[in-house]
Specification:
Distance between the termini of chain A: 14 Å
Helix content of chain A: 25-40%
CATH superfamily of the largest domain in chain A: HAD superfamily/HAD-like
Number of helices of chain A: 7
Number of domains of chain A: 2
Largest sheet of chain A: 6 strands, parallel
CATH topology of the largest domain in chain A: Rossmann fold
Strand order of the largest sheet of chain A: 3-2-1-4-5-6
Number of strands of chain A: 6
Shape of chain A: globular
Radius of gyration of chain A: 16 Å
Largest interface: A-B, 26 and 26 residues
Oligomer: homodimer
Chain lengths: 175, 175
């Protein structure tokens, strides 16, 4: 039986970091780089407070987020060896549910709907492997974890790290 | 630590059976009773084929489904002893995602969003107990199962059965 992987959306398949930077520049006129955000928490990443929640609650935010570089090809590759589930904590922002489903249909049409899970917390998700950028999801996971690098997790070292999708393939692809 | 329960929506919290009967009568003029459907599959429950999928894909179907008798009070009661998750196979019908979330907010506002999961299949759901009406969900579940009676499952006996929410409480409430 194939091993199963739960793959996160925001910060892993979807480059929300780049999207936050673009929208912040558009709305507040200040241009940040990914480097500027390194080591910050999501809450204090930008000078204007509450912005992350404001954008995440905005219509079209999740529908228009760019795909993380290399994600499509890598997931296709992993699908040959693993049973792939997309698991996204979408429940906090109800308008994101339909947008995220449409976004997946556009960029990852090879993931069938049976393999998509939108949840609140991820504590009852049971796969062999989890790829995620958030400690709150990885720390309580019972299987093997792979931390996808994001500005808010660069200072943590207690999960195996992948800086990009090529590194994910290097770690998981050769088994 | 509290034991966790995954509670299904359609056929368990939501009386989709009654709703199908109402909509079928409205659209095709024929009035069925719950007794008429006993032992049938969802696909052959009504003379008009494809109706279940047609209704389930219709706007407002899931938003207007009646609550199963006794469900609200019973879930409130179970919440005192158990960690309650609502787990619904909503992914097949994307328009249902927002409707189901709004429906839960209306009738089950005491369930926080962190405890809601919309999925495709339920194979990676890991709770101690599952309450569901569908064999496809119960048969592969690793924990304790409780089959909520529905017309399509009356002839199966390989899961512990609860005919209504009072019976669920009788079985789980006294622990």
């Amino acid at each position: 039986m194939k091993k199963s992987i739960a793959i996160d959306m925001d910060g892993v398949l979807a480059d929300v970091e780049a999207h936050f930077i673009t929208w912040y520049h558009r709305d507040y006129g200040q241009k940040f780089t990914k480097k500027d955000l390194l080591g910050k928490t999501e809450e204090n990443a930008f000078p204007k407070k509450g912005m992350v929640k404001k954008f995440a609650s905005s219509e079209n935010f999740f529908r228009s987020v760019p795909v993380m570089k290399g994600a499509i090809e890598a997931v296709k590759e992993l699908q040959k060896t693993y049973d792939i589930y997309i698991v996204s904590a979408a429940m906090e922002f109800p308008q994101s549910l339909v947008e995220k489903r449409a976004w997946l249909d556009q960029y990852f049409p090879f993931i069938e709907w049976k393999k998509i899970i939108f949840c609140g917390d991820k504590s009852i998700i049971n796969t062999d492997i989890m790829i995620d950028d958030h400690l709150k999801n990885l720390d309580h996971f019972k299987g093997e974890t792979l931390m996808f690098s994001a500005f808010h997790n660069v200072n943590f070292t207690h999960h195996k790290r992948a800086d990009n999708w090529q590194e994910v393939l290097n770690i998981l692809g050769s088994r």
